[in-house]
Amino acid sequence: MTFRTNSAFAFTVVPGPLPSLVWSWVLLPAAPVGRVDWRPRLDGRERQHPGDSMPTAKQLADIGYKTFSTSMMLLTVYGGYLCSVRAYHYFQRRSSQRQAAEEQKTSRVL
Known about the structure:
Layout: E1 2-4, E2 10-15, E3 25-29, H1 57-109
């Protein structure tokens, strides 16, 4: 990806030395471009070319990865919730059974 500036140089963005899961970018000087007289449009938008609105393969892969990761995170949270509810009911049932056993012992004594 090359960015042009108001100077005579452009900068190329390449992935940095960190692992791919960490977003890092390094600016490297690109080959000098002829006359750079690019000016932003007055309304603040860049020119759009046909196909610019289409996501690239990398963007689609990133979207898929983030979606999958989010769904796995939600499933993990939901699984933890179900596990804690089951443990709560187990301990409630156990305490009620103990209480019933104690009541049965006291009723035999009387």
